[in-house]
From TrEMBL:
This is Lipoprotein. Keywords: Signal. It comes from the Bacteria. Residues 1-23 form the signal peptide. It comes from Pseudarthrobacter phenanthrenivorans (strain DSM 18606 / JCM 16027 / LMG 23796 / Sphe3) (Arthrobacter phenanthrenivorans).
Amino acid sequence: MKNHHIPTATLATVFLLAGCTSAPNISALDSPANEQDQLPAGITIWPEEEIPASSVRFLVEHNEIRYFGAKSADGKRACVAALPEDGNASWIAGCSDLRDDREIVRVSGTGVVETVLMSDGFDVDKLVGDGWKPIHKNIVISAP
């Protein structure tokens, strides 16, 4: 007589563990839109068909730089943009796939500190230990 309980128990464990993993998320991008979420007039960062303007959310202002986040229409990509208040300074932006709870995208450019967008619940301790500064639950910047 064969014992079929072990394969069944193994499958049940696999399904339970798979159910425990959460999809990465940036809850700030799911909040209702308001006036503050609009990019400054004349600035288009992402192609509308890839990253709808309606998905852009203002996240935080720090040292005269405004940080925005956005999501792709299918919710599989997330983006960050850093726009200096000084209209003559260059802005930076980038996007990447939302695959797991991790650093999503890192951007840098002349005149703007290096910026990291991360998913909710990302453990920033190592970045903070390396001199990064959290300015929002989903953004850290390099120390100037």
